[in-house]
Amino acid sequence: MSTSTHCWILSCFCMFASHTTYSFLLSQSPDLTHVSVGGTVQLRCTFENRVSYCYTAATWQKLNLRTGKLTPARSGSQTDLLQHDDKTCVVILRDVTKNDSGLYYCISHQNSMAFIGSGSRVIVTGKSGVKSHQLFYGSRSL
After folding, report:
1. Do the domain assignments include residue 82?
2. Partners of 113 in the beta sheet?
3. Which residue has the higher pLDDT, 107 or 17?
4. pTM for this prediction
5. Which member of 27, 36, 96, 128 lies 3.0 to 4.6 Å from 100 by CB, making a disulfide possible if both were Cys?
6. Residue 122 — φ and ψ, nearest 5°?
7. Number of domains comprising the chain
8. pLDDT tens digits, 72-118
9. What CATH number should be reported for the domain holding residue 42?
């Protein structure tokens, strides 16, 4: 399928989900966030009902705007999934790079139905891969 087909399918699903009686089950924030290279981003998924464990209640996917495919958000030690309270799950992206820019979705599966958040646009600005080092010059007395 082409990129436009993938995006169209996701758009239709989101529009359908937003018009069903189940659309109130989760909300996502922030809609848009700007962060500098090396910074930290927190994305929230808030459920209407209590969730026991965030790692089973929510998955975080990033939409690849070139291919239109959803892929898992970064994993490993740089990504944390936390339970903020009994209804809110938070994913934390640390030490972000420009490659982390994109559109992230919170997705929850309940009773053979998938619920998708409204999306969080992350824009990472600044220079990548360049670390500044300070040199200190001193004098030594003899």
Report:
1. yes
2. 110
3. 107
4. 0.69
5. 96
6. -110, 125
7. 1
8. 886 554 557 777 788 999 999 999 999 899 999 999 887 788 888 99
9. 2.60.40.10
